[in-house]
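Inositol-1-monophosphatase: structure, please.
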Amino acid sequence: MPFSANLNIMLKAARKAGRSLVKDFREVENLQVSMKGAGDFVSRADIAAEKILKDELMGARPTYGWLAEEGGEEPGDDPTRRWIVDPLDGTTNFLHGLPHWAVSIALEHKGQIIAGVIYDAAKDEMFLAEKGEGAWMNESRIRASGRIRMIESIYATGLPFAGRADLPETLKDLARLLPACAGVRRWGAASLDMAYVAAGRYDGFWERRLKPWDMAAGIVIVREAGGFIQPLNPEGNIIADGEVICANEPLFDKFSKIIRNT
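Here you go.
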């Protein structure tokens, strides 16, 4: 299907950054890696990918704002639009040679995510969506799953590491959810977790303490695939709070009640 000019810019940028990352991924043992914090690494490959994305996206739309993991936030001459970018979601997987990581790009307009791209370059799977135009993986339309029974459903989340304070809360979540479902997965890339909900591979996903670039592209992709997505606090804001829960329509209420403990 024909895509908008902005989405085509996003797709081109994601593929170009993805090619750079794949090249470095093949030589992952030789990467120069520095510690950015407990369990949170930044690599030469990560920084190089962000430069590619910024050159491509800001070169095409120089008036837009910019928010990215490594480069921080820069306001644009157009205050209504900004790119929200994660050049390498799943950095720890990448540095351990695990082929599960992604480039994530979202376009925000007046506080709403209107387009998103999540590119799993290792598997050459491009998840994409524009508001009102449906969600796609490469050339195929994707939809959230149609499962209706919790006991047959699979969920994804992130598990706190390195002494993070939200570990007790997450363990309580798992204690409530695991007896009610077919399993929980932790694959280490929130953007791909959300893309997998959109594609029907997972039936739902939740996580706390995320950053805007972890979630932004996934928000529009899940919605356009027919999934339900909310902040964990129903009165909150996904991007501002850094908390999200999403699932297919038939299971969302049951799943969210378990996680929210309501």
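Notes: Residues 5-142 form a domain with the Fructose-1,6-Bisphosphatase; Chain A, domain 1 fold (CATH 3.30.540.10).
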